[in-house]
Every structure is written in structure tokens, then in C-alpha cells.
Amino acid sequence: MTETPSRPLRADAARNREALLAAAADEFAEHGIDASVADIARRAGVGKGTLFRHFPTKDDLISAIVLDRLGGLNEAGERLLRRPDAGDALLEFLTLAAHRRQQRDISFLHNVGETGTGVAAARTRLFEIVQVLVDRAREQGVIRADVTGADVVLLMCAPNHVAEYLPDGAPDLWRRYLAIIFDGLRPDGAHPLPHPAPDVL
């Protein structure tokens, strides 16, 4: 993978980079991993040469998209860690993650872009943030005591996966299943879980 330049980009170069990331995410969401680099550049309103100056290979582009998605979630999570109501913070984080996935599902890129510069660190930070959100919610008695950060990370994609089984379902159907999932995290009426949580993801 090509290292990301350490010096700040010029304003026009930064705009081009952001346009390319948005266009690429849209193209991959619509056409899958075989999305054309030429179509991505065209959608971003730049030439292929500009694309390759920012992202010399397709793998570099995919890694940048994954890092951008993880970075956005981490930034939101860091902000929510400061919210006094831990249950509200955890629910908002899960809602944000599901909403972004519903708008543009590029989750299949995560395995492809896993080796990109900074991706592993960003993913580790995401898991750390979720763990702290969960710990705070447990301490405040908002969620059951036997729920772990790993449990919640694994549940993050569940609302969208369930809703996807209905191809003609309402766009916000995932909200129903997120509410069901979050109610299942609450301590009221909780029964012992039949299997221990995974140690690592």
C-alpha cells in the first residue's frame, strides 16, 4: 500500500480527494467491487490522472474509503463518550452506524481494505470506543451486566441485515430492528445468556 502523504493537501487537492472518496463509495455501493476507476473519476468530476495521484492503486482507494468510514464513526464515538447519559450515547452511536450503512452499504469493502495504512489502528480504536460506551452504560444500569463490547460490535450490522431480507421494505425499517435489539440489551426481565461472549473480534 502507498503511504498517505504527511504534508497537508492544498485546498483544491483536498476537495478533489473528498470528491473522489464520495464518488468511489457511491460507485462501489451501486456496482460492487468491480466498480470502474474511470466511472469513479467521472462521477467525481476529475480526470483519471487526478485519481491516481491521490490513490495510485485501487486497493489504496478502497483502504482510504474504509479509513474514512471508520474515522467518521470514531469521531462520533469520541464525542458521545462525553455525553452524561450513557444509554442515550450508546443508542445514538448504534443509530448513527446503522443509518450510515443504510445510506451507503460498503461494508463488503472492509475485508478488501483491511491492510491499508491506518485501517487496523482505526478499527482497534472503534472497538475501544464501543467498549467504553458499553462499560459506561453497564455502570449506569442501562444495559444488562453480561453484555460486552464485542457483543455490541457484532450487533452493529444486525438491523440492516434483517431489513435487507425485504427488498421492498421501507428505507427506515432498520430502525424497528435496532429498537428491538436495544430493548434486548436492557436489564429489565433479562435471562442468563446461553454462551459466553467472544474474547476478540
From TrEMBL:
HTH tetR-type domain: residues covered: 14-73
Keyword Transcription appears in the UniProt entry: yes
InterPro entries, A to Z: DNA-bd_HTH_TetR-type_CS, Homeodomain-like_sf, HTH-type_TetR-like_transc_reg, HTH_TetR, Tet_transcr_reg_TetR-rel_C_sf, TetR_SbtR-like_C
DNA-binding region as annotated in the record: 36-55
Domain of life per record: Bacteria
GO MF: DNA-binding transcription factor activity; transcription cis-regulatory region binding
Gene3D superfamilies: Tetracycline Repressor, domain 2 (1.10.357.10)
PANTHER family: HTH-TYPE TRANSCRIPTIONAL REGULATOR BETI (PTHR30055:SF234), HTH-TYPE TRANSCRIPTIONAL REGULATOR RUTR (PTHR30055)
The name this protein goes by in its record: TetR family transcriptional regulator
